Amino acid sequence: QVQLVESAACPVHPGASLSLTCAASGLPFSSYAMRWYRQVPGKERALVPVITSTVGTTDYADSVKRRFTISRDNAKNAVYLQMNSLKPEDTDVYYCKADLPPFGSWGQGTQVTVSS
């Protein structure tokens, strides 16, 4: 059974940094693209960054370029999201996703709150 578990995050002030971890189990982790998504309640999931498989290519939404960094450690079955210079508009529920066919596999989500 595939499981993706995102780490919890404490509320932070604007300008602060946070690091999220997604721990994966039950899948050949290095074989699949891993992604982080963000969702505002009541809205469709909006893509944040993506990193693909072992090739290590990345793609980021314009709103997080130069502030967020995604990385993965295939030996630890983990994908990370480093978020710097956080803004109140980054407040959201962040989800980890593995690109398993046919529809992917999602974590439960973790709340990120940026507020003064």
What does the model show?
This protein is mainly beta. It has no helices and ten strands. The strands form two sheets. Strands 3, 4, 5, 8, 9 and 10 form a six-stranded antiparallel sheet that branches. β3 and β4 form a beta hairpin. It starts with a strand and ends with a strand. The mean pLDDT is 89.
Notable features of this structure?
45% strand, mainly beta, 116 residues, 4-stranded antiparallel beta sheet, 0% helix, globular
At a glance:
With 116 residues, the chain is mainly beta.
Return Rg in Å.
Answer: 13 Å
Q: Which structural class matches the secondary elements?
A: mainly beta
Shape: globular
Percent of residues in beta strands: 35-45%
Q: What is the strand tally?
A: 10
What order do the helices and strands follow?
EEEEEEEEEE
By DSSP (H or I, 4+ residues per run), the number of helices equals 0
Oligomer class: single chain
Q: What's the average pLDDT?
A: 89
Largest sheet: 6 strands, antiparallel
Helix content: under 10%
